[in-house]
Amino acid sequence: MPKIVDHDERRRIIVEALWRVVDRDGITAVSVRTVAAEAGMPKSSIGHYVGTMPQLLTLALRELEQHNIDKIMTLGLFDLDVDRAVEALFTLIPVSDRRRLMSGVWLLLAVNSTTDPDLAEVLHDLNTRVADGLIEILTAMKHQGLLHHSRDPQAEARRLHALIDGLSIQSMTDASLRDAEAIRAVLRDEVVMLALPVKSPVGAS
After folding, report:
1. What are the b/e assignments for 46-59, b being 16+ CB within 10 Å?
2. Rounded distance, CA 1 to CA 74, Å?
């Protein structure tokens, strides 16, 4: 009788192997060869169960994304106050050593996406998902009076996305900018500002 292979389990093993390579050797060590060796499988298994390296990175990033979503959901988007809104945004910043290593996958995509269309597509998909998540958070904030009615959740999500990406890069690349409370203070200022009306342009009637 032929052996039944659980493809989902094999994919889980491969993704876990990728994270172990990142933890131990850093993001630059990630390749089909190193991940396959860590998983105890031939290189051909990566292609069979996952696909290309961009597809493997996509799986890994979606796992990280799901972890963030699960954590945000525990905060209760339909019962937000300033503190919970700050913590929801703080969840997206890689402040721990492990989270910085895991977020290195994102930096790898950003560095290589200009020359690799497949990686560019993965990065675009990730950015879209983060933007959608921020719109969801901001929409919940608007319903609960934490986002002023004059502010557009989509426009604010784009600006907030840029702030979060900037704080994430600083946290990953500069040890002096990793203080969790300092990052929370920046996010708190942002959350408080979002409750205020949009300022009219200078000279507007």
Report:
1. beebbeebbebbbb
2. 45
Pick from 121, 124, 133, 120: which is nearest to 164 by CA? Answer: 133
The whole-angstrom separation of Cα 44 and Cα 52 is: 10
* Distance in angstroms (rounded) separating the CA atoms of residues 189 and 107: 26
Q: Are 14 and 41 in contact (CB under 8 A)?
A: yes
> pLDDT-derived band of residue 115, with 50, 70 and 90 as boundaries?
confident
What ranges do the domains of the chain cover? 1-51, 61-194
Structure tokens at 85: 């809104």
Amino acid at 77: L
For residue 40, count other CB atoms closer than 10 A to its CB. Answer: 9
Residues counted in the chain: 205
> Could you tell me which CATH class the domain 61-194 is placed in?
mainly alpha
Question: Angle, to 10 degrees, between the axis of helix 180-194 and the axis of helix 153-173?
Answer: 170
> pTM score, two decimals?
0.79
Each residue's pLDDT tens digit, 78-101: 788 999 999 989 988 998 887 887
Which superfamily does 1-51 belong to?
Answer: Homeodomain-like (1.10.10.60)
